[in-house]
Amino acid sequence: MNDRLINVVIAGLGGQGVLKGSDILAEVALRAGFDVKRSEIKGMSQRGGSVTSDVRFGPKVLSPMVSPGEADFLLVMELTQVEPTKHYLKPGGKLITPDTVANAKLPNKKSLNVALLGALSVHLPLSETDWLEALREGFPAELFDANRQAFFVGRTSAE
Predict the structure, then answer these.
(1) C-alpha to C-alpha distance for 83 and 7, rounded to whole angstroms
(2) Between the N and C ends of the chain, which has fewer C-beta atoms within 10 Å?
């Protein structure tokens, strides 16, 4: 998987951490030495509207946008967003939804985005150390323990 382009689409509603999740994923891929491109469509995100963000990484990335039918992974933070975004997933691609995660084990509901990144992480050639460092740097220090816990809840749920 290290020698090919990996396409990830993250979708959800405004306020769920879609953009923060894509920032973290892009940072982890950069730390791993990949070329990374990221784009976003905010829509009416400030009012709970649809938000998507594409992250592409690999040896060489030319465009930041994932075309329909090309996403290796579709990570959806809100089940209502599966239908409007499933056309991005390629045949044989992996859909990751909130059902993947043991929500009762999350430190709080706001950490679902990090838990879903944990679930995604088991499928990617990115080190656990890089994920944890990106989480440490991407959030205020007082949130690290809860985010670390959420990441491992997601990772364990997906294994």
Answers:
(1) 19
(2) C
Instruction: Give residue-wise pLDDT tens across range 123-144.
Output: 999 999 999 999 999 999 999 9
The pTM of this model reads: 0.92
- The encoded tokens of residue 8 equal 């990830």
Q: At 155, which amino acid appears?
A: R
Angle subtended at Cα 112 by Cα 52 and Cα 141, rounded to the nearest 5 degrees: 105
**What tokens appear for 45 in the block?**
């995100």
* Cα atoms in the 13 Å half-sphere on the side-chain side of 131: 24
Are 61 and 38 in contact by the 8 Å Cβ rule? The answer is no
Across 100-133, b (16+ Cβ under 10 Å) vs e yields bbeeeebbeeebbbbbbbbbbbeebebeeebbbe
Query: How far apart, in Å, are the Cα atoms of 83 and each of 45, 106, 121?
Result: 18, 26, 23
Strands 35-41 and 6-13: unpaired
Q: Using one digit for the tens of pLDDT, what is the confidence trace for 61-74?
A: 998 999 999 999 99
